[in-house]
Amino acid sequence: MSKHVLVVSPIPSHPQFQGNSARIYRLNRMFQLCGYQLHFVYFGMEGLSEEQRRQMESQWDFFHYIKPEGPAAAPSFGEYFDIDDWYDERVSDLVDKLCQTWRFDVCLVNYVWFSKVLDVLPESTRKVIDTHDVFGDRHIVAKEAGLDPVWFYTTKELEAYALERADLILAIQDEEKDYFKSITTKAVEVMGYVVPFQPLISQESDKVVIGYIGSGNPFNLESLRVFQSAVMKAPNIMQRYTFLLGGTVCKAFEPFNEIFDVIGIVDDLDEFYRQIDIAINPMIGGTGLKIKSLEALSYGKSLLATQDAMVGINGIDEFHNFSTLESMVNALEALTEERAEILHRNSIATFHSYNDRFINEFKSLFAEELCNQEDSSKR
Predict the structure, then answer these.
(1) pLDDT value of position 57
(2) Which of 109, 158, 315, 341 is in the most buried spot, having the most CB atoms within 10 Å?
(3) Which residues have CB under 8 Å from 368's CB, separation 6+?
(4) In the 3-class helix/strand/coil scheme, how is 173-240 assigned residue by residue?
């Protein structure tokens, strides 16, 4: 007998042009690959085009859509959000009806601030929160970095309250597991971002092509600005390299751009990664897992990254863990063909080590139980 998983999300799984959508898609696929029937409930905070609807209806076994009745609510407490400010009770109503038809073995809700849906599920359903990121005191972290807080942010106390609704908390990397374990009594495990290895051969070019693709969030913008400033202090570097910029960050960074060839929103990630030889992630600050780092590694690309860009990934090359963007640029300037080959091998090895760890972790959390049930049914 097949098992059923209910996935609830305020973010679509398609297209995967930003980290959270990519995360949702990959975790959903892992459930499917382990034999689960997947029911996807999307509360449309980011809208729904006909193409998106077609893709999600085609990909998931069952697809349900709830259209928001207005924009996301303002913070109830002025300086921060109540944990349920962005939740819509219609999600609970729909899930309650679905539970009258289906027996869900697992319900996974994306984001702690959408966890209220877990309250309507029967005790027989295993309740899981995929956190994606830390939202407790997120506004304080942003202000300390000199940035205005954006999206959702709340207090540690409210985040802890919401975590208690679940049976299992999924952190996206080890540091965040430690944080969640410090504020909740519930089980916390790390589940990284698992994606197939799909190496691509780069197109031939007169210069080595350095590529970055990302969304236009404030941390990405500031990281690119500092990286660009470091490059412009080393003018000889432009004679060796071409810098390519893709994703929604392009529009936001346009007023500041002086070194990048801009290609804008990328419909086909394969095409972007075919154009580059080396990927960079110059992230300074931020929280969560930097999915763009893993994405680049999955395409078999050499990666230069900061320590902040590799939290939870454990890169095995010193070029994966620069402490400053100035040192990253200096390494680019001095990069030899032999050193580039070593970096390429180490980047691939880093990817496989990471992927193997979390494939096994997913199986231990969700697939072994399925296998055990199948074995017992044969006795």
Answers:
(1) 98
(2) 109
(3) none
(4) CHHHHHHHHHHCCCEEEECCCCCCCCCCCCCCCCCEEEEEECCCCHHHHHHHHHHHHHHHCCCCHHHH
